[in-house]
Amino acid sequence: MKATLLSLLVMMIGAVSFAQSSTQVKWTFSSKKIADKTYEVHATAAVTGNWHIYSQNVGVDGPIPTAFTFTKNPLVALDGAPKETGKLIKKNEEVWGGEVRYYENKVEFIQVVKTKSKAKTNVAGKVEYMVCNDEKCLPPSETTFSVAVGG
Asked: Does the N-terminal or the C-terminal CB of the chain have fewer CB atoms within 10 Å?
Protein backbone atom coordinates (compact mmCIF):
# COMPACT_ATOMS: atom_id res chain seq x y z
CA MET A 1 0.00 0.00 0.00
CA LYS A 2 2.81 2.43 0.92
CA ALA A 3 4.60 1.61 -2.34
CA THR A 4 1.44 2.34 -4.32
CA LEU A 5 0.90 5.67 -2.59
CA LEU A 6 4.55 6.62 -3.01
CA SER A 7 4.43 5.74 -6.73
CA LEU A 8 1.28 7.80 -7.18
CA LEU A 9 2.85 10.77 -5.39
CA VAL A 10 6.02 10.59 -7.52
CA MET A 11 3.94 10.42 -10.73
CA MET A 12 1.86 13.44 -9.70
CA ILE A 13 4.95 15.49 -8.85
CA GLY A 14 6.53 14.45 -12.15
CA ALA A 15 3.41 15.44 -14.10
CA VAL A 16 3.30 18.86 -12.44
CA SER A 17 7.03 19.39 -13.08
CA PHE A 18 6.68 18.29 -16.71
CA ALA A 19 3.84 20.74 -17.27
CA GLN A 20 5.83 23.66 -15.81
CA SER A 21 8.14 24.08 -18.83
CA SER A 22 5.17 24.71 -21.05
CA THR A 23 4.13 27.66 -18.88
CA GLN A 24 7.57 29.28 -19.32
CA VAL A 25 7.46 29.07 -23.14
CA LYS A 26 4.56 30.03 -25.40
CA TRP A 27 4.85 28.53 -28.89
CA THR A 28 3.24 29.89 -32.04
CA PHE A 29 3.40 28.22 -35.45
CA SER A 30 2.75 29.65 -38.92
CA SER A 31 3.72 29.22 -42.57
CA LYS A 32 4.76 31.64 -45.28
CA LYS A 33 4.97 31.00 -49.02
CA ILE A 34 8.40 32.03 -50.34
CA ALA A 35 8.28 30.54 -53.87
CA ASP A 36 6.22 28.20 -56.00
CA LYS A 37 5.58 25.08 -53.85
CA THR A 38 8.12 26.33 -51.27
CA TYR A 39 7.18 27.47 -47.77
CA GLU A 40 8.79 28.49 -44.52
CA VAL A 41 7.32 26.95 -41.39
CA HIS A 42 7.92 29.30 -38.46
CA ALA A 43 8.01 28.05 -34.87
CA THR A 44 8.33 30.98 -32.46
CA ALA A 45 9.14 30.49 -28.79
CA ALA A 46 8.28 33.39 -26.47
CA VAL A 47 10.15 32.76 -23.21
CA THR A 48 8.80 34.36 -20.03
CA GLY A 49 10.62 35.93 -17.10
CA ASN A 50 14.26 35.11 -16.49
CA TRP A 51 14.09 31.72 -18.22
CA HIS A 52 16.02 30.71 -21.30
CA ILE A 53 15.60 28.00 -23.96
CA TYR A 54 18.54 26.15 -25.44
CA SER A 55 19.72 26.26 -29.04
CA GLN A 56 19.51 23.20 -31.30
CA ASN A 57 23.29 23.13 -30.93
CA VAL A 58 23.67 23.70 -27.21
CA GLY A 59 27.47 23.30 -27.29
CA VAL A 60 28.01 20.84 -24.40
CA ASP A 61 26.57 17.62 -23.06
CA GLY A 62 23.99 18.18 -20.34
CA PRO A 63 21.19 20.57 -21.20
CA ILE A 64 18.60 19.25 -23.63
CA PRO A 65 18.85 21.06 -26.97
CA THR A 66 15.71 22.20 -28.75
CA ALA A 67 14.85 19.46 -31.26
CA PHE A 68 12.19 19.16 -33.93
CA THR A 69 10.69 15.88 -35.11
CA PHE A 70 8.54 16.13 -38.22
CA THR A 71 5.75 13.68 -39.02
CA LYS A 72 6.29 11.99 -42.38
CA ASN A 73 4.09 13.40 -45.11
CA PRO A 74 4.41 12.09 -48.68
CA LEU A 75 3.28 15.48 -50.05
CA VAL A 76 6.06 17.45 -48.33
CA ALA A 77 9.87 17.36 -48.38
CA LEU A 78 12.00 19.12 -45.77
CA ASP A 79 14.74 21.34 -47.18
CA GLY A 80 17.62 21.19 -44.70
CA ALA A 81 17.33 21.61 -40.95
CA PRO A 82 15.47 24.34 -39.03
CA LYS A 83 17.40 27.61 -38.82
CA GLU A 84 17.38 29.77 -35.70
CA THR A 85 16.87 33.53 -35.59
CA GLY A 86 17.16 35.52 -32.41
CA LYS A 87 19.78 36.91 -30.05
CA LEU A 88 21.98 33.88 -29.40
CA ILE A 89 23.73 34.01 -26.03
CA LYS A 90 26.97 32.07 -25.57
CA LYS A 91 27.98 31.72 -21.95
CA ASN A 92 30.55 29.63 -20.13
CA GLU A 93 28.65 27.71 -17.47
CA GLU A 94 30.62 25.79 -14.87
CA VAL A 95 27.69 23.52 -14.04
CA TRP A 96 27.62 22.26 -17.67
CA GLY A 97 31.40 22.24 -18.05
CA GLY A 98 31.70 24.64 -20.98
CA GLU A 99 30.10 27.20 -23.23
CA VAL A 100 26.34 26.83 -23.68
CA ARG A 101 24.15 28.46 -26.33
CA TYR A 102 20.66 29.68 -25.53
CA TYR A 103 18.02 32.33 -26.16
CA GLU A 104 16.12 34.60 -23.80
CA ASN A 105 12.77 36.29 -24.52
CA LYS A 106 12.21 35.09 -28.10
CA VAL A 107 13.64 32.78 -30.75
CA GLU A 108 12.26 31.72 -34.10
CA PHE A 109 12.99 28.40 -35.76
CA ILE A 110 12.40 28.33 -39.52
CA GLN A 111 12.07 25.12 -41.53
CA VAL A 112 11.91 25.37 -45.33
CA VAL A 113 9.60 22.79 -46.92
CA LYS A 114 8.71 21.99 -50.51
CA THR A 115 5.33 20.60 -51.48
CA LYS A 116 5.20 17.97 -54.20
CA SER A 117 1.91 19.25 -55.59
CA LYS A 118 -0.33 22.28 -55.27
CA ALA A 119 -2.66 20.40 -52.92
CA LYS A 120 -3.23 21.81 -49.44
CA THR A 121 -1.59 19.71 -46.72
CA ASN A 122 -0.01 20.06 -43.27
CA VAL A 123 3.47 20.04 -41.82
CA ALA A 124 3.15 18.44 -38.40
CA GLY A 125 5.42 17.23 -35.66
CA LYS A 126 6.70 18.02 -32.21
CA VAL A 127 9.35 20.18 -30.61
CA GLU A 128 11.21 19.05 -27.49
CA TYR A 129 12.91 21.72 -25.40
CA MET A 130 14.22 22.54 -21.93
CA VAL A 131 14.19 25.81 -20.03
CA CYS A 132 16.48 26.96 -17.25
CA ASN A 133 17.17 30.08 -15.22
CA ASP A 134 20.13 30.96 -13.00
CA GLU A 135 18.83 28.70 -10.22
CA LYS A 136 17.28 25.63 -11.81
CA CYS A 137 16.21 23.75 -14.91
CA LEU A 138 12.78 22.31 -15.54
CA PRO A 139 12.33 18.85 -17.04
CA PRO A 140 12.14 18.71 -20.84
CA SER A 141 8.76 19.45 -22.45
CA GLU A 142 7.19 18.62 -25.78
CA THR A 143 4.78 20.67 -27.86
CA THR A 144 3.01 19.28 -30.91
CA PHE A 145 2.15 21.37 -33.95
CA SER A 146 0.42 21.26 -37.32
CA VAL A 147 0.76 24.03 -39.91
CA ALA A 148 -1.11 24.28 -43.22
CA VAL A 149 0.92 24.63 -46.42
CA GLY A 150 0.08 24.45 -50.11
CA GLY A 151 -3.23 24.96 -51.78
From this structure: N
